[in-house]
Amino acid sequence: QIIFTIYGIIFSVFLLLSIPGLFNYENKIKQIENNIAKEFKIYLENISGIKYRFIPTPHIIIKKSVLKLSKNQKNKIAELKDVKVFLSLRELYNNKNIKIKKMIINKSNFYFIDNDFLLFNQHLQKNIIKPLIINNSNFFYINKENEVATISPIKNLKYFIDFQNQEKELEMKGKLFDIDYNFYWKKNYNEPNFLENIINFRNP
């Protein structure tokens, strides 16, 4: 009886988690775009190919999309593949709404020009966001001659707000000029005029 009960619970949990896979997420593309813009203050456009997965936790995978930092931005920052958007299962069941908890981007190339850095600085200073993680990607800086001037491989980037401590943080590990570095940026909302910046190079 105990074994059958355990199997019954496990089966029920898997069934509960898998039901959202029956939803038609292609009809919710506009809602997904709007919610990402609202929760992350970035813009995913031309979304195509959405699949639902519930392991390790419920999320959707966006097969292809284009990333911009501003709605009116002419140039795209990146063409993304297999973006993972983690969802609130309660909202899916109760209201069939897409409520986003965090987003993970893997193995992507990001292209920045001077104006993009200004936009990103504004993003750091002003915007309230949900957690954003970037893994195993590359940042390219494009100069005024439209040439790649600098390449920085990014092993891991975490961009989030610690609401308990009322702090916004950016943590990044990567390479610059073939030198390993750890970068840390923090803004405490109790002292918004003070910023903490730390960068550590290994064997510079």
Main β-sheet: number of strands, strand sense, barrel status?
10 strands, mixed
Number of strands: 10
Shape, principal axes of CA atoms: globular
Tell me the fraction of residues in β-strands, as a range: over 45%
What is the string of SSEs from the N terminus onward? HHEEEHEEHEEEEE
Radius of gyration from CA coordinates: 20 Å
The chain-level mean pLDDT equals: 86
Number of helices: 4
Write out key terms for the chains shown.
single chain, 204 residues, alpha+beta, 10-stranded mixed beta sheet, 24% helix
Summarize the structure.
The chain is an alpha+beta fold. 24% of the residues lie in helices and 47% in strands.
Describe the model.
By secondary structure, the protein is of the alpha+beta class. Helix content is 24%, strand content 47%. It is built from 4 helices and 10 strands; from the N terminus they run H-H-E-E-E-H-E-E-H-E-E-E-E-E. The chain has helices at residues 2-18, 29-40, 89-94, 114-126; strands spanning 43-53, 59-68, 78-87, 100-106, 109-112, 132-142, 148-162, 167-176, 179-188, 195-201. Strands 1, 2, 3, 4, 5, 6, 7, 8, 9 and 10 form a 10-stranded mixed beta sheet that branches. The longest helix is centred in the first third of the chain and has 17 residues, at 2-18. The relative contact order is 0.10. The model has no long low-confidence stretch (mean pLDDT 86).
